[in-house]
Amino acid sequence: MHDLLLVGGRVLTAEGMADVDVAVAGGRVVALGRELGPAREVLDCAGAWVGPGFVDVHTHAREPGGEWKEDLATVTAAAVAGGYTAILTMPNTDPPVDGAPTARYVLERGRAIGRCTVGVAGTVTLGRRGEALSHIDDLWDEGVRVFTDDGDVVADAEMLRRALAYIGDRGGVVAQHAVDATLARGAMHEGWVSARLGMRGIPAVAETTIVARDLLLVADTPCRYHVQHVAAAGCIELIARAKDRGLPVTAEVTPHHLTFDHTEVLAGTDPVFKMMPPLRTADDVTAVREALRSGIIDLVATDHAPHADHEKDVPFEEAPNGVIGLEWAAAAVNSAVGLDPERFFDRMSIAPARLAGFDEHGHRIAPGRPANLVVFDPTAEWVPSGTMSRSRNSPYLGRRLVGRVRWTIVDGTIRHEGAASRA
Ligand SMILES: [Zn+2]
After folding, report:
1. Is residue 303 annotated as part of the catalytic site, yes or no?
2. Cβ-based burial of 320 (10 A; exposed 0-12, middle 13-18, buried ≥19)
């Protein structure tokens, strides 16, 4: 008797998409095919895609130190509701994850909650101050493989060069919040909208100057290098050229940068449209969509960034950056870009798992693999109206989306059941 039988879906297998059933037992996929025998639960996957659970490499869980916004219990509830089976939390907590004790705290809390896999990124520099390297070896021993000062750029070229050398030697990843702080003192994209509103802008060159410099450093000191939340079209050309030269470079884009442009700010200066990097032009949106399709941008990352109502309910210029997004990221990507299922699972699951080193996630479905799966209906229409997150700062709330998670299965156990029907 199998634990679960997923019947009637289109499944991402080693040979491509196939109309087969999937049997799960003991936490693993045990068979693909038809007439696989009885199961304790049968899930009707008709009309849906069955693939590896989504993996987010850019989650701000806010724990420790920001639990009024979010914590590891609420963020993992939001994650599984959005089809995620693994998340990598960002280290800009209070205290930051710059050494073993904080890393261990986050990892142990994630395990104790037990809803999905929780990995943690470490900071590049101690206290995210940009002055000295963090305790890289101690973090490495805790299993940390991705290092970032996210929230801030590693501005100092010498510091970044040392990080590339040290982390590159170990095979880790340096992920950069590629925004030059001296060019990013504004509140939104620098363009005709900021001019009309009389708001100080952040030019696209704030992103491209950092990416250009960093890629020169990576060519000189090879290390896996990842550009976080690409928003400006100019970055894409730089990344494409670096990939052509064989540099170990990857890049991510967020659902909101795939969906919205700076004109959203014009229609009411709502702080749910304030993020870093800012929403840029329609041409930038077209460029990041195309780069995600072509693979120049490797993957989607949510940059799920909870803030309490009282923090976001302030004038636009004073509001903190960021939006939540785990629960509707897949729907937003499906609505904005409309990837075919192979590319969809590559950008949402496979590429992010590879980046973060989540070996149990992000694989094509095959017997013997851990059953970390998502059943995603690419045609279901819905309007997000509430959230499992402790915060509600999202421009997608109240907005019609196409594509919805039916089930999230972690280690063979159903962790989320959405608008679904059972056979
Ligand atoms: Zn960032």
Report:
1. yes
2. middle
286 — alpha (psi -120 to 50), left (phi > 0) or beta?
alpha
Q: Which residues contact 35 (CB under 8 A, 6 or more apart)?
A: none
What is the β-pairing status of strands 146-147 and 373-382? unpaired
Question: Which strand ranges, in their side-by-side order, compose the sheet holding 39-44?
Answer: 28-33, 21-25, 2-7, 39-44
Task: Report the separation in Å between the CA atom of 98 and the middle of ligand 1, taken as the mean of its atom positions.
Answer: 17
pLDDT at 420 over 70: no
Using CA atoms, how far apart are residues 142 and 242, in angstroms rounded to an integer?
31
Domain boundaries, the chain: 2-49+369-417, 52-356
Q: How far is CA 247 from CA 145, 190, 238, 240, 283, in A?
A: 19, 31, 11, 10, 27
- Of residues 303, 346, 377, 411, which has the active-site annotation? 303
Fold of 52-356: TIM Barrel (3.20.20)
Distance (Å) from CA 317 to ligand 1 centroid: 18
The pLDDT tens digits for 15-74 are: 999 999 999 999 999 999 999 999 999 999 999 999 999 999 999 999 999 999 999 999
The CATH classification number of 2-49+369-417 equals 2.30.40.10
pTM: 0.97
Residues within 5 Å of ion ligand 1, judged at the Cβ atom: 150, 177
